[in-house]
Amino acid sequence: MILQKMFFESSKFLSGWRHWRCLAVWTASLGAIAVALVGGGPRTLAGQPATRRVVVATTTVVADLVRQVGGERITVDSLMGPGIDPHSYKATPRDTDRLSRADLVVASGLHLEGKLSDILSRLGKRVPMVAVADALPRESLLSVAENLYDPHVWFDAKLWSQCPAVVAQALAAIDPAGREQYEANANAYRRSLELLDGRLRDRIATIPQQQRVLVTAHDAFRYFGRAYGIEVVGVQGTSTESEAGLNDINRLVELLVVKKIPAVFVETSVSDRNMTALREGASARGHSVTLGGRLYSDSLGGPDSDAATLEQALVANVETIVAGLSGGR
Ligand code: ZN
Hints:
By secondary structure, this protein is of the alpha/beta class. Helix content is 46%, strand content 12%. Strand 7, helix 9 (222-228) and strand 8 (231-234) form a beta-alpha-beta unit. Bound molecules: zinc ion.
């Protein structure tokens, strides 16, 4: 009877997370009943909790972080999918529903999710919530204006390696039985990010010194530049909310021509309109600039892409940058 009712209810939810969540509850209940029949407690045969906690992460980058730390004990639901720009993303009614039903909400923070701040602060009063970058020491952050910091911290693998511990603590608060597991996962992921950090720096160092200039659509890569020794110039500022003016374009064309920069880069979550203007401007001055490729900026790729995780995205970006800036001249 209960199973029939659950099946009926799960078939009513035909789309997205509600469907999956219901299905997950249904599957977990099946597991619990199966174990109960053979005399076990409210746990599955694999020793995991019968009902996995549901964590809603705002961006794909944060969803990856939560997956690395939560492992098998939790279900991660990413509010924004691949290729979505978090600066301009607004919550839909379905998102509000997903957020309010979550056991925990994990945001990136530092005003990255500018248009979600109202709903997050409202829901934060009744749903456990943590913004990982907000927990970083202020002296490690790049300032944008007074009391406003650049939110793109995940591009510095060493800096981001402080965030797994923040997630482990938040997960342990909603699932105390998993504390040891979360802490072990967080430590392993931190070490992995630290190792990657050195590898990324070594790769960037192979680009001829004068050509270590990364021109991209918006200023997402300042932490990357600081960490890995490459000058970074964004056309659009730290948020995609501001527009690039003609003066910005002319200033950048000058830079490309004078420094003989061979390539500029577009981003997966930002329009490439400005980059076309730059290339045309440089071409009119007799300097050819290629499109160095597409960088993952505020979003990872899809599950089947070469950037399903942050570590993969960082490697993919660095290889794209090295290939684009090492040629030409
Ligand atoms: Zn951004």
